[in-house]
Amino acid sequence: AQKVTQAQTEISVVEKEDVTLDCVYETRDTTYYLFWYKQPPSGELVFLIRRNSFDEQNEISGRYSWNFQKSTSSFNFTITASQVVDSAVYFCALSEKPDSGYALNFGKGTSLLVTP
Amino acid sequence: DTGVSQDPRHKITKRGQNVTFRCDPISEHNRLYWYRQTLGQGPEFLTYFQNEAQLEKSRLLSDRFSAERPKGSFSTLEIQRTEQGDSAMYLCASSVRSGAYTEAFFGQGTRLTVV
Questions:
Q1: pLDDT on residue B107
Q2: Which of residues 35-64 of A touch B (CB under 8 A)?
Q3: Which has the closest alpha carbon to B72: B49, B102, B96, B45?
């Protein structure tokens, strides 16, 4: 069963628009971690944020913000005033198993295209 | 650059051949992971090392796949008798085990094409 669902396969916006990427996760553990990674065309996964299950505070970092809601098992990511350089594939991931070194369980990704 | 390094970046091989990839993690990172990513999908976990010990293997890691980390530093992933379905990006990541969990840093991957 898919533990991380990113329902949006592709999103296209015009520069300066705000865009929200959705992520819904599934776990029975009470301790887990959630992540967002960015994968630009070069292919390297770039870490954006980590959240643990006990910290539901929303976070803002520049134009990026994250909304973590345990009640709906969601961890959504918003980019404000999008820029062309934001074009990439964005992955949400869940980590829950210490025996696997907290290996990441990724969603299928959302491809974001920002056009001028 | 002290990031995760993978070699080669690209590999084209004929079906049935063996291939080996190398990953050099960030220095002093004792955790090392291999993932596989196919087109249009997210990375999928293959295996995990803590120092030289391989502690976890995914069901995706068939008998044709073997990974090693002999001295707890660099790691190799070998695929024997490659099949077209093995065509994918193979990603390596490393992290450091500490009291507080730290995020994994990824290399740029090795893209394998089996023809």
A1: 94
A2: 35, 37, 42-47, 50, 52
A3: B49
